[in-house]
Amino acid sequence: MPQTRTYWWSAGTALLLVAAMLLAPAPAFAKTEIHFWHALSGQLGESVNELAKQFNESQSEYEVKPLRKGTYPETLTAAIAAYRQRQAPHIVQVFEVGTQTMMLSGAVLPVYQLMKEQEIAVDWKDFIAPVVGYYSKDGNLYSMPFNSSTPIFYYNQDAFRKAGLDPNKPPQTWKQVEEYSKKLISSGTTKCGFSTAWPSWIQLENMHALHDQPFATKRNGFDGLDAQLLINREFGVKHLGQLAAWQKENIFSYGGRRGDGDPKFLSGDCGMYMHSSALIGGFTKGAKFKWGTAQLPHYGAPYKKATSIIGGATLWVMKGKPAAENRGTARFLKFVSDTNQQMWWHVTTGYLAISNSAVKNLEAAQHFKRNPDQFTAFAQLTKGTATPNSQGLRLGNFVQIRDVIEAEMENIFAGKKSAKQGLDDAVAKSNDLLKEFAAANKQ
Amino acid sequence: MQRTVFKSRWLPYALVVPQVAVTVVFFFWPALKSLQLSLYRVSPFGDKSTFVGLENFRKLVTDPDYYASVLSSFVFAGGVTVLAVLGALVLAGLATQKIRGLAVYRTLLLWPYGIAPAVAGIIFLFIFHPAYGILPYFLSFVTAYDFNWLLKGWVAMTLVIVATAWTHLGYNIAFYIAGLLAIPTSVMEAADVDGAGPIRRFVAIVFPLVSPITFYLVVLNMVFAFFESFGVIDAVTKGGPGQATEIMVYKLYKDGFIGLNLGSSGAQSVILMAMVIGLTVLQFRFAEKKVTYR
Fold first, then answer.
1. How does pLDDT run across A392-432, given as a tens digit for each residue?
2. Tens-place pLDDT, residues A71-111
3. How would you class B40 by CB atoms within 10 Å of its CB: exposed for 0-12, middle for 13-18, buried for 19 or more?
4. Residue B50 at interface with chain A, using a CB cutoff of 8 Å
5. B45, A397: Cβ pair inside 8 Å?
6. How large is the ipTM?
7. B106 CB near a chain A CB, below 8 Å?
């Protein structure tokens, strides 16, 4: 069968060719590739690509290749799976709630150590305190702050004007929020007073920090794995009880987890909203009305006023890469933290600039005068008193804990449980998760 | 015995190897892995793992949330199965009438099956979302009742049941149309002559004759609802509000892939697997006796 033989012969040749192509040594001029997995999409994803491009063009030895791996949890799961198969990327972006998991994973090279090994000088003191505090252990920074934000207060100035409120005087206290909500509703301007995004992050984590209340024992978990939640105490119960009562009167209108409540504000249904400061850009594009920003409302005395805490994500360096590649990783992270780069990143994305010098330069360039909303977050983070309660949270299994808390918050807002009952249940379940985490990490 | 079919001794084995390999790699291997995982406490990165025996199972069976999840799985699977199978039977019955444009109707009825569950979820989100959905907007003119499924558990559950049933309707309809067309017209005509009305004919003739299909579809829809309904729930409710729509397969995903608690997730998948196997066996034992194969 000559035909068949020809066929086999040519197939064999083709295979050999493919094999030869695959096995061919990489050309000598190839740059060292640095793989960078992240979770930013849309406009923010574009900015990440732009950042990598700027770095790649700034030098000729390394090429950073950004790759979006899905949402934050998906990116983390993908990195873990890759690490277990020894295929981990050099850099992975992890959200703030994954910090404890990463620190104890044994799979990362702390950033301070990387920089020391590579003898790259970084002025750690120049980083703004609330950001550094969240990601440091024993005074050393473990991951490079990348996209940080803090929740702020947004309000619809057009609606304020229509309801007879001063559009340049946003509420500063919760009492005013209630008052203004009633005015907005009774004047027929809006259907509801206010809503919130990220229920646990804003209404519990940040409200506790802002009112100088502890969220968990052991200095919010910074002092040990055996921390327990404290959100079912006087302040937590009072605040959630208040929100649940307001939910009945439409003063508060629950809009879902994450940013699911955005349409309530953007459609004009609710006149006020609380969301990450990183949404300034999004709302500039999405809102068809004039809006302003303010710091988060406070209950006033007897509570003290502390700073809010941050959210967002940092860049973690995975362990086990050759020193030559680590050098590229280190140089990229140094590039990311440089003053000019920080200014560009802040102006482009709305995330906070993380160094004091970048903030100073932005001030000098009149940036905040022209964009006062961009300053709200900095003011809230840096002008308040930093206390142990406002430095952040360091909890294991935090992703699940947030989920447990938000489920109970929904039960409270729906009137299925009292604030006390719901928070007691949330604390009990969260403490189990904390114990579980401590057990899994104490071997 | 003479080998009449295969001349070669190894060929028959070689021919079943791919099938067996696929089953081993994609079913037995993961199943065994889950079983192993369920007995360990594993750190997220897998660097620390300790044998804990049945601890993961003990935690689950003493957790009221897990029972709530099991209960909502049954409510969900039951709802989806009843709605998708009964709905399909009714629609298939209508689509086998002698009407103009039959081919168009049939094609349209089969369409939903071609839609990915996640996409179906998004479509339902746009229709029903309390903030930007079109339906709540119109409902607000009719009734003052607030169908806010971001807070009301039963509304959320109804919504994911309807959405999931809808995605599976087309598949069921295809089977029923085939089944209904296979019923001999002579039988129907004889009943007609005997004076049986449409309902009587359906109960006495059509239903028993399509019972094998119904049985097959009930088993399949049940398994589908337990295992593969992830997409709709993830797109619409993400298990909320509270834990109202956190069915077992979603809780398993959440604990394992978002919470990174692999041990508990493994234990949950073992329980889920055992339950679905048990359910299927039960159905074959008891329900199949009532099925008339021709």
1. 999 998 988 999 999 999 999 999 999 999 999 999 999 99
2. 898 899 999 989 988 899 999 999 999 999 999 988 999 99
3. buried
4. yes
5. no
6. 0.79
7. no
